[in-house]
Amino acid sequence: MTALSAAARPGDKSSAWRLSDRLGLAFAWALGLLFCALTVSIILYFLIEGLRYLSIHLLTTNPKAGFTESQTGGFLDPLLGTVILAAMSMAIALPAGIGVAVWLSEFARPRALARVAESTIEMLAGAPSVVLALFGLLLFQSPVLGFLSQTTQGVVLGLSFFAAASILSLIALPLVVANVREGLQAIPSHVREASYAVGKTKIATTRRVLLPAARPNVITGAMLGVGRVIGDTAVVLILLGTSLTFQSAGGFLGLLRGQGTALTSYIYNNAPSGELNQPQKAYAAAFVLIVIILALNLVVELAGRRARRMRWG
Amino acid sequence: MGLNVPPPVRRLTGNEGTSSPAPATGSPLAAPNANGNGNGRPPLAPPSFAGAKRMVEPSTLAIDRMAVEELSVSYGPKRAVSSVSLPIRQGEVLALIGPSGCGKTTLLRSLNRLTEVTRGTSFSGRITLDGIDIGSMEATELRRRVTMVFQQPNPFPMSIFDNVAYVLREQGRRRPRKRELTQPVADALARAGLLEEVKDNLDHPALRLSGGQQQRLCIARALAANPEVLLLDEPCSALDPQSTKVIEDLIVKLREDVAVVIVTHNLQQAYRVANYVGFMYLGELVEYGNAQTIFGSAKEQRTKEYVSGAFG
Amino acid sequence: MEDATLQEGAPRWSDDQRAEFSLGTLVCVVVGLLLAMLVFVFREAWPSFSHNGLSWFGSGGGLVDKQITRIFQSGDYHGAGGYVYTFHAWPLIWSTILITAGAVAIAFVCSLFIAVFIVEFAPLPMQRVLQPVIRLLASVPSVIYGLLGVLVVVPFLNNHVITNSEKASVSPTISLSGYGLITAILILTVMISPVMVAVFADGLRAVPRNWIEGSWALGVNRWRSFWKVAVKTARPALVAGAVLATARGLGESVMLSMVSGGIGFAPKPWDGLIFLFEPSEPLASSILQYQDQRTSPPMESTLFAIAAVLLFSAVLLSLAGWAAKQPMKRYGVVA
Q1: A-to-C residue pairs, Cβ atoms closer than 8 angstroms
Q2: Looking at domain C90-329, which of 1.10.10.10, 1.10.1200.10, 1.10.3720.10, 3.30.70.100 is its CATH number?
Q3: Model-wide pTM > 0.95
Q4: pLDDT per position as a tens digit, A137-184
Q5: Alpha-carbon dihedral of residues C189, C194, C195, C200, nearest 10 degrees?
Q6: Which of A246-255, B159-168, C12-21, C326-335 has the lowest mean pLDDT?
Q7: In CATH, what number does B63-157+228-307 get?
Q8: Is the peptide bond before A110 cis (omega within 30 degrees of 0)?
Q9: CATH T-level assignment (fold) for domain A54-64+72-309
Q10: Cβ-Cβ contacts under 8 Å, B140 against chain A
């Protein structure tokens, strides 16, 4: 009588496999472990170096010109700039994205327009951000949109928070659309039919029933969009200007119309390959940026878990 | 090969099996309970389909293939199969019947050690294939000799030819060339009764076949490597009656070369195709015997109640 | 706010019709904006293309930086007669091809094996940890990866790998300092792998379990079963992941401008080992580098021409991905 407690796998031992199969498995293990090791070391590296150079001082003072790292101040303005950009761009991208997603999921007539819309959004998702930034320059340097940025000597600068945020919202849009659409399409049709059967309109159903049900997806889309926005450097470099601090024209709106800076461009310029070459500042700012991204990912994880619990079966 | 097509209907009476079941000594089967009608209940009506045509006669030649000895299988604390012993022979179709949850599928899956896929499974007892303990064999080798067809047809997303040739390609030392495969593939398809329908379309995607054809393709795929035992887990439950009939005919034809074990919750199907029947209830093998006996005059009261539809 | 109920034959627009109209307008605005972008970019780019013809894509202009300077300086002349449009972008194109193709090739193989490992062969605790970690890595900004390259890989190569004699052998034309091809390919590989692994893993997990079990039940071992059934079935996901990663690699401007060397030089494979360390500049990074010199029509046109090439490649890429998935649909592989 043998008592066997078997493993969770089909029970065949790899020692009996052909050589090529065993090599394949060994390769997969090796790469898997290497991947883990690389991930851990990258995260640890930035955590350690960042914490080493981070201080409250850096978070509360503005960058200024100086000769050594201790004289050049912190990155308060860039941090604020990142926050402003995130808020502004999501203020555009979230409603617009939900609207487009609702249209694609619930209406989608005429069919030709729906197909074109899907293709263009997909194209937008794959378009390089430099190209979008260049397009933004073209748009915002035209006299028509001059009110959104500052004008010097009759030449519209086109560099401002408005300009950068508008283009960033375009970058975040496909993420919002995709996630909200996925959430809406996951709702089975009998839910909609039940609502129509009591006389509710499509739009009321969407507003009262479908969107609340798809809320985890909306949150995921929003967080992914924010993550993409605060991580983008090209648009910031091209459309926000190259100043160290905010160049406000006066008042809050003036601030938004002026040039500025964000964490990503700050890191870019302070890296050894950038103009300023202050690695310590770069480490510290990178740490802050990573922490923000981590927090966003955590929100996405939790929202995703709640969505899985609320499955429709 | 010698396909032994049974002659058309002949109402079988009495116990005509030439090889009587040989339970291990000491197993609960050896001493039948005399439980007839002696406990005051009205006699149970014989199964309503008893007059239906049976497709099988007990065959004249039966080769012992596998033997299950005192097998018990547990998923964690829950016992799914308790001390089951029965033989599996080539030349016979063994049907495992019983209500849902009685352990018949677990027993089937133990025969090719697929129970090991689930976490926390433990078993005691022994199963032998041609005298060798299957626990001592390499699992992949066992599963080539004891193949399984599942309830839901699951052909791979490849062409029909590639599906049937799959096992032949993946098990050998070296990969056989396509030329070498055409004959075995055709043979397997013929045995599964599918060759005529698909022989001109072997490169077509397998998923475009109808449900019944897909299941026959799965049977062909399972037969491609010439297994000794073929396990069928409710193979017709997802199919329409027409396809079911085709597959039942097939099963009867196949028993000459392969030992067939079929799990079914359809009593009529068991009646039609089986030589021997094992009735399981709550993990125990309540009764094992010749199909005619089980359906006509079972020894156990529970068996009688089940086959006459008193519970399901 | 009241929800209107459906009214039969109401003369005025119902809520639904209003909603459909306004949302439809929104969609039209978005689509219009993107189409306008296509039109504007190509319109601005046209002068550069028309002046150069097909030689725009060719070599023969030497270092791109010198060409750009010439173009830029010509803008000082008022009047179209003095503008110089001559531009041969081959060094940029070659750099883009080398870096993107190299990174995608390496990353594809590695990501496939890693995804197979994660989905099927890794121990369960490892699987649970790796899932969110991969998503985290995929969302790390490119500037951080660039920083990693500049602070870790570049000094390592500069101090420990590239020999002084190698540096001396090329010193008049270019400088080997660790900012070069291999750094760019390496960092780009690390950058696009998480995305690929995530897409591959999703595709592999979507394969119906009973197909794989069916393969086990036929006596095929676990490795082969997974490879021959699951990986084959997940081929559309493999294509999607590869397309996504290539698009990311093509459009990557920031990280590559930090590590690839910043010189519009076409790396020469026949230079041997030095080839790996030669600096270059891919298309997207060149836009970033020269965008503040956009003050004259010829410069503007040249920059937009580069952008147009990038945009066109992105569109071609999605088409190629769509086309690659078509034959797979035949065998019931769900795309």
Answers
A1: 246
A2: 1.10.3720.10
A3: no
A4: 888 888 777 777 776 666 777 788 888 999 999 999 999 999 999 889
A5: 110
A6: C326-335
A7: 3.40.50.300
A8: yes
A9: MetI-like fold (1.10.3720)
A10: 12, 16
